[in-house]
Sequence to fold (859 residues):
Amino acid sequence: MTVNTEMHVRVAKITQVAERVKRFRFERLDGKPLPVFSGGAHVVVAMRDGDLLRRNPYSLMSSPQDQSAYEISVLRVEQSRGGSAFLHEKLTQGDTVIISQPINLFPHDVRGRKHIFMAGGIGITPFMAMMDQMAREGGNFELHYALRDRQHGAYWQDLTERYGAHRVKIYVDAEKLFIPVEALLSNQPLGTHLYVCGPAGMIDGVMNKATHLGWPKQNLHSERFLAPPPGKSFTAKLKRSNKTITVGTHQSILEAVEAAGIDAPYLCRGGACGQCETTVLACDGTLEHNDIYLEPDDKTSGTKIMICVSRLKGDEITLDL
Amino acid sequence: MNIKFKQETFRGDFTYRNSPENIMRFPFPFHEDKYMYAVNMEPHVPAGPKGYAFEHMIDVDEHYVSEMQDRALVLKEDPLRCQALPHMMAGQWDTLELLMEQQAANYPEHFSLTKNADQWHWVNRPLGIDQKFTYGDASTLPYEPMEYITRQAQGDFCIVDQRDGNLWMDAGMVTTQADWSLDFDIGMNFLEWHGPVPLAHQMGVFDRALKFLLNLQQGKPVRRLNWTMTINPRLDTSPENYHKWGTDRLTVTPENVGDKVHLRCELQSLWRLPRSNAILFVIRCYLLKMDELVTVPKWARRFHRVLRDLPNELADYKGLTRFRPTTVEWLSKHDDGLPTSPGIFPE
Amino acid sequence: MLVQGIKSRPVYTGLTIDPNARRHLFALEGKGVDALHDQVKIHGPDFLKVSDILSVGPLATVQADIMWSAPTIPVLLNRLRINLINAKMGTRLYLAGTEGFIGQAMKVALDQDIDFNSILTEHRGSRARRVQCVHCKGITDDVKTSPCVCTHCGLNLLVRDHYSRRLAAFQGVCIDAEEPGTAPPPVEMFP
Fold:
């Protein structure tokens, strides 16, 4: 039995906070308090765009203890699959969307003596909630925030004012100010944890560097805003549901399955959490694994696929759904 | 619903008894005529006939006051039954909020909770408590938040931190356990604290359970039933006191099975906590003696068959070896061999 | 409850030198120094230039950046604590010796917030155990038999394989709780 815990919310306010960045404020339609959450959590926002029901995850950036509203900030991405375009251009104040309960796949390690947050661009959003919570609960943190330029960077002034320049360091690409990753990571006491959120290249670069500086993986945390990459369309046969569907070019398998009215499990919709793992019964082509969850052996076995981000390069795949 | 709370003991003279209504709401753990480990988790939602143990998600019953008194005695003797590692304060506050909200919402004649921003007012009528405090400020409570509220809630409670793709038992109030030590196990991860359980590891039960729990979501608690047996209605069957209660196991005779031998069921529920992202693991203990159990014919037949056919390793691990034959013999007189319906509820 | 053959005991991974570590810190007891010598044979001596070697018992026959010898285990553990207070991220900790020593050293390390997954351990020497009596909470050192007698409260204890990192001890539970006086004779299990 599936318990439905989704919430209907109204878009209470839309604010342009920087070039190409808008903040959206959601308030519950039924007037009940929104659940409190832990910093780093995201919600999956389901929005109707004509015939299409879009479901995308967004980090909550509002104060975790504010039960009157949730806030997210979204970057208008150039090669958007339509999600950020819809939010920026079509969604208006007063519209209704449906959001999931908060889910946290990027929590801080409560035992940490010190927490270093590294944000790139819109990756700042989860840290805003984390810092709000940590400041109240008495945690020791430092933010290193890299922006392309000051017009495109959101919240850097607010954060510096709120937490102080000793805790918030801003780096601007356009001014040739870059995070001194090596110097920073070479000089931290034991028990420091590092959290990175931003473009994949930034995360990979920092994590690589940290590993080579002897940081154990238990002290390294990252959240990627991984959108399902596009690809040629193909057919998916769903054995248990007795259905055959087409997975479109800009559509993930999960989205195609949902569009066909089938309830498949998911949590992060970004290839990280493992919830949507599905058994591949047959495939005519090569599996394209775009996730960061499966072990190398599982990927090569050809029997498992993370349907929220991975695809088939070929004609037909049969799934145990 | 106004509960009539009993005055009874879980030690010494053992005056604990179930009222006839309470027998019918016992969370009988066997859905078929045999038992083996399974992940067996299901959504923790209301189920069963009205008044059943699954009606409210945190269950308060007629034994509430006496259980809390027994807990207080256990803690006096052994304060190590309640411990919290230093980093678990957010989890403690989450737990306090959950238990206060659940008890006040479901038993308004017995508990009230009023919130005014962070100024909270909690009233517990059965225990005569009237407490105003500041949520988030432990100095405004007579105990740390977890200890404070779990001294007022039936069952054992463990707050489990989630990190490194694993779950860590980092805080707990454990006074009604079926034989494990919080002091020893605190700080262990999921596979470690389940280390001693035979057979289940090879079956992959714990690997699957862990994967499932790591994805446990806010607003969607789950539950499962676990069981063992106890001689005399003793709540504190801790390893710490084993050298004191262990001899009870030799006192079972064919004549006293009905009165002394108890089925001990744990209704376990797991809740994702919002502020700490930890998991609250509730282990709510129910005791039913054989005389009471056999008043439900389906349960009499089923439990006889389950106990008779239980694998020896499980019986050993659950500590049933000494009194199993005598109990099975006694139960056989209440098993007429008729078929039993699937599911746990009485006919 | 008194089932033998349970699964939760520490696993010793071996002292494999981590090529990414910026600094290596060794705490070695007795035959544990041989574990270090073996690593030098495998990896060569370069890593010693950025190593601190703390030992109790025979000295390591190598030249490292810092070498310090302690007269007793408690003295070594205190020095380890101080080293860890000053250590930076990028330090890898290696412990080798008897189980009791490794457990105690790991306790010191965990208190200083090194995650236990980044501590490498190798067991050398006696398998004698530290046992916590679950009844009185007293710890009995150097236990070679099961059952053993708790040196604090006198109960006969079954020595289980269930192990607590936090207490750095195995669990001891009264073996004749159900029938007092029927404890079997002690058998050497951890020489």
Notes: The interface with chain A takes residues 18, 20-23, 84, 87-92, 112-115, 117-118 of chain C (CB under 8 Å).
